[in-house]
Write a structure and sequence with these properties.
- This protein is mostly beta strands and 170 residues long.
- Helices cover 0% and strands 39% of the residues.
- The strands form 5 sheets. Strands 3, 4, 5, 7, 11 and 13 form a 6-stranded mixed beta sheet that branches. Strands 1, 8, 9, 10 and 12 form a 5-stranded antiparallel beta sheet that branches.
Amino acid sequence: WKNNGEMSGTEGQSLRLEAIKINLSNLEFAGGITYQTHVQNIGWQGWKSNGQMAGTQGQSLRLEAIRIKLTGEIANYYDVYYRVHSQEFGWLGWAKNGESAGTEGYSYRLEGIEIRLIKKGTSVPENTTNSFIKKPTQVNYQTHVQYVGWQEWKNNGEMSGTEGQSLRLE
């Protein structure tokens, strides 16, 4: 177990996080913590809480993103900040209170995570931007042209077919 902002996972070793458990201890206020993970080939899983496992231990599937939030009375007094170390991007900015951290659409693994509870109204961690990077949705298409056959794949508004040659799309 790690606590108070210590890194869990690895950095620079190309090892994936596959599952995570998060809990609170020494509570001065009632409440708990909930979290959900975005998993390779699955997407966003349901919310887990208070030490339950999120992810897929033993299935060799990588975590790609995470959301964490406080519940109950403690959420009135504290914010939960977290950041992840992502394949190819390294350390991303800090997310808080249920925001997404990591990537979606890139198939990049989470390699490490840091989590901090910070009393509301006190200073926040530096770099609270770019905590989540989502690959833009693309549309890909290919046309079959009279006398030409199948053309190369095109995407996002590129012209497919011919122009000024009086050839039909088949």
